[in-house]
Amino acid sequence: MQSGLATMPAEELSAGKVRRRTPWSEGVRRLRKQKAAVIGGALVLLFILTGLFAPLLAPHDPIEQNLANTLQPPSAEHWFGTDDSGRDMFSRILYGARISMTIGIFSVLGSLVVGTLLGLIAGFYGKWIDTLISRIFDVMLAFPGILLAIAIVAILGPGLFNALLAIAIVNVPMYGRLVRAKVLGIKQEEYIMAARAQGMSQVRILFRHVLPNSWTPLIVQGTLGVASAILEAAALGFLGLGAQPPEAEWGKMLADSRDYITTAPWVVMIPGFAIMASVIGFNLFGDGLRDALDPKAQ
Amino acid sequence: MAPLLSVRGLQTYFFTDDLVVKSVDRVDLTLDEGEILGVVGESGCGKSVTSLSIMGLVPNPPGKVVGGEIQFEGRDLLKLSAKEMRAIRGNQIAMIFQEPMTSLNPVFRIGEQMCETIQLHMGLKKKEAKERAIQLLKQVGLPRAEQVVDEYPHQLSGGMRQRVMIAMAMACNPKLLIADEPTTALDVTIQAQILDLMKRISKESGTAIMLITHDLGVVAEMCHRVVVMYAGKVVEEADVHTLFSDPKHPYTQGLLRSMPTLHERKDRLDSIKGNVPIPAEMPKGCKFAPRCEHASEICLGEEPVLQQVGGAKPHQVRCWLFAEERPSHLANPEARSE
């Protein structure tokens, strides 16, 4: 036992070094210990960077047609081949990442902000306002998400932005209920009573004390939510309700090329693979975050 | 001189679906400046609810202060607006809680939490507030105060956290500190330290303390005066020496008998038979009558009032045994109560 202590590095032993760790850096440390999360994080980063720098990376114009060069298999010139209009698949996948990441991330941000606000209000103030908000959530959750999204797009009209909006609206109850449940627990905590006893106002307690304690599940759910938002966006695109031609959106690409699945399988498989890889990336990363940030796992 | 705090006829009820629970039923309390008042009683006797009523923090619904007045420095706290009340809470009246492990927000550093209160009430700048926080932490005897301000609650032990809570409560030099079982969750050696600290602070800054506890040992150690509560009512009130040397109410006597003493060896501690009445079956007369060995017909039928007994010292008891106009069959109460 003694020798074990002796071999410990001195800085580990000095209280200061170990205690300085903030919850945040502690979370990052634990996240990095998980292989799946690191792979997920790498995929997420890859797709985000791809989306950001698509114009720099793409060797061809994603919407420029070349009818003399349709449905070419992958080659040195066209890494992922060409589609039925002779467009470079590789460039289209890169630009598709931009669209999918945008929809995924911004729709989640949208539903996160609105859902959190509604959930905070419902959970903290309770009474009739809670009943009202919770019943609206219940009604929204009674519809299959994609069906509701289709309905909303049908009202707003097809298009990328409307698809984003529809996905954001559909997912609000998920975050709202999560926050509400968390708030119901937190508001019973003694430190909230203590904050009251210190003379803080309701609004201050809500945003300064309750909200920061609800972050963890939101970060996790938000990350996983990006994955499902990407899928929903692809589904809307596939149905022709999201991105409009000639935009390079993965779901749309999948839909346009499904006639060629036997003759030119790459035009179908490559967008499908892109969707799958990005969704897996966010899911792995989200699961890793959950394990890293869950205080019970300590 | 008018007392610092004067609670008159306070009634705090909790409304459930099918009954009204009278958690605090016409309680009177006074507290002078710099005085330490013990409020004693077992769980559910209304001592915590009394303190929450004073703070204006009774959870509503289901609870509500339905009657009485709480005079603090000449103002009735029950008549103040929410905003005026907020200006008093944490500033002139501070409170510390039973569980030091959970009364600090886990996501903020100690300093951030302290500064928030200091900035809120004292209007100090961030840097000044931090200096004040460090100074306060030193005052409550925390070692490494400069480092502790930058640490998170989970890095501190229970005793340290309770010190932090006290430092936080003292941040704005309150006139009154309400301490709800401040040492119950701590182990005995730390308990003694925390009690000493509170005593010292009270003496140095002239802060009055309302100490809520079920621990008579703590009361003997700390308090000037004691109020014993049972089932939402004050049953006995006296200065600490009188209460321990000459307890009148059978409940107080029972409490004292159930305490271990150093001088005599008992195999078994005495206990008070029975349980606190549940709200739905509150006795009609004296609330303690069903458990009281001296109970007679009148005790079961009619509730006694709180009245002065004995000599010159203020000593009030709510018991038929000591009532001025007591029923004839209780001719010699002194003989019966030992």
UniProtKB/TrEMBL annotation, chain A:
Keywords noted in UniProt: Cell membrane, Membrane, Transmembrane, Transmembrane helix, Transport
Transmembrane region(s): 36-58, 99-124, 218-243, 263-286
Keyword RNA-binding carried by entry: no
Domain ABC transmembrane type-1 stretches: 97-286
Membrane topology according to the record: Multi-pass membrane protein
Main location: membrane
Compartment(s) where it occurs, according to its Swiss-Prot or TrEMBL record: Cell membrane
InterPro entries attached to this UniProt entry: ABC_transport_permease, BP-dependent_transpt_permease, MetI-like, MetI-like_sf, OppC_N
GO cellular component: plasma membrane
UniProt GO BP: transmembrane transport
Superkingdom of this protein's organism: Bacteria
NCBIfam families: Opp2C
Similarity section: Belongs to the binding-protein-dependent transport system permease family. OppBC subfamily.
Entry protein name: Peptide ABC transporter permease
Organism listed in the record: Brevibacillus borstelensis AK1
Organismal lineage: Bacteria, Bacillati, Bacillota, Bacilli, Bacillales
UniProtKB/TrEMBL annotation, chain B:
Protein name (record): Oligopeptide ABC transporter ATP-binding protein
SUPFAM superfamilies tied to this protein: P-loop containing nucleoside triphosphate hydrolases
Species, as recorded: Brevibacillus borstelensis AK1
PANTHER family assigned to the protein according to its UniProt record, in alphabetical order: DIPEPTIDE TRANSPORT ATP-BINDING PROTEIN DPPD, OLIGOPEPTIDE TRANSPORT ATP-BINDING PROTEIN APPD
Family to which this protein belongs: Belongs to the ABC transporter superfamily.
Protein topology in the membrane: Peripheral membrane protein
InterPro entries membership: AAA+_ATPase, ABC_Ni/Peptide_Import, ABC_transporter-like_ATP-bd, ABC_transporter-like_CS, Oligopep_ABC_C, P-loop_NTPase
All copies of domain ABC transporter, residue ranges: 7-256
GO biological process, one term: peptide transport
Keyword vocabulary terms for this entry: ATP-binding, Cell membrane, Membrane, Nucleotide-binding, Transport
